[in-house]
Structures are given as C-alpha cells and as structure tokens.
Amino acid sequence: MVSDLFAMRGAAVIDTDLIAHRLTAVGGSAIEPIRQHFGDEFINESGALDRPKMRERIFKHPQSKKILESILHAMIRHAATADILTASGSYVLIVVPLLIESGHWKAEVQRVLVVDCPEQVQVERVMKRSGLSADQVRAIMAAQASRATRLAAADDVILNDGSTTDLENQVDRLHQSYCTLAGNNLL
C-alpha cells in the first residue's frame, strides 16, 4: 500500500519481490536453475516455483536458503538495475523486503525507508495475506532482521498501524522531501 501511495504521487516504484515472483513464475528465468539444484518436486504442475514446498525446505535446511539466494539475488539485482535505467518518475523507490538481510542494497541507495508496525500487527497481516499460522509467521520473522535492527538502519520511518489518512500524510511528507532531494521541488 505504501509503495502504491508513492507511485500515485509520481515516484517510479521497482518492487524486488514482484521481480522475484516474475523470475519464479511459469517460464521465469530462475525456474531451470531451481529445478537443477532442488529437483522437479519444487516446481508445481503449472511450471512455477512451488513456494509452500520451498518455504518448508528452507526452514528445515538453512543451506537451501543460501542456494536459492545464490540463484535469485543476482537475477533480481540485474532485473532491478534494468528497471531503474528505464524508470521515469520524480525519483525511484526500490522496494526490497529483505534489504537489511541482503547486505548489498543499502550501499546502492541514497536513503532507507522502513515501513514499520508493531510485531503483532505484522503477524496478523501476514496470516491474513498468506494463510500461514501465527507460529509459521513468527518462524519466518525470527529468520529475518529484527524490528530494532531495521529501524536502526532507517533514514526514514513510516508507521503503518493507523488510518489510511495518517499513512497518506506520512507519504505526502516524505514524497515532498524525496522530490527535494532529487531536485524536483514540487509544492
């Protein structure tokens, strides 16, 4: 929702999670390397990555996560770079769900914006969106950077625990700031 609000205000948005989904969809360039490393059982009937099966594998075998990342991260960076070079907007906003964990993105951006909410709100939202149990969501969160670590890495923070109007006001304020930083002084 936050990236959509920035896009509505004129930012070019590049979402690395969407890129990852594209790479692992039917015909995606990551499917064959995934098949070679993990086997046919990790590709579903339609020819896309079997995400639930891969999620289970990664949590049972941490080395599998490193292998999957070695396949995907370079492809994601390449696609994101290509998208950045052709982007048009007041500025480019790159959505990187695991920015802190990846290690390299922070060096490639001018500012880090963290969209934050209390952990219980995060658990509830992920459960609703993905159908995972609270324990599964907490296990995923435990494997990621902590809330405190993400907040410490932030240049800017949007607190997404209230009303849509409050969220829009926070985005408006940051949009103006980012336009100024990009040399697009919009009033």
Write the layout of secondary structure elements.
Blueprint: H1 2-8, E1 12-15, H2 16-23, H3 31-38, H4 51-60, H5 62-86, E2 92-95, H6 99-102, E3 113-116, H7 119-130, H8 134-142, H9 147-153, E4 156-159, H10 164-181
Parallel strand pairs: 1-2, 3-4
Helix pairs in contact: 2-5, 3-5, 4-5
CATH class term? Alpha Beta
- Bin the helical content: 55-70%
**CATH homology-level superfamily:** P-loop containing nucleotide triphosphate hydrolases
- Shape-level CATH architecture: 3-Layer(aba) Sandwich
Number of domains as seen in the coordinates: 1
The SSE order reads HEHHHHEHEHHHEH
The tally of strands reads 4
N-end to C-end Cα span: 23 Å
Largest β sheet strand count, sense and barrel closure: 2 strands, parallel
The secondary structure category is mainly alpha
Strand order, sheet with most strands? 1-2
CATH topology tier name: Rossmann fold
Radius of gyration: 18 Å
Poorly predicted tracts of residues: none
Shape: globular
- How many separate helices? 10
Question: What would you call the quaternary organization?
Answer: single chain
In brief:
This protein has 187 residues and is mainly alpha-helical. It has helices at 2-8, 16-23, 31-38, 51-60, 62-86, 99-102, 119-130, 134-142, 147-153, 164-181, and strands spanning 12-15, 92-95, 113-116, 156-159.
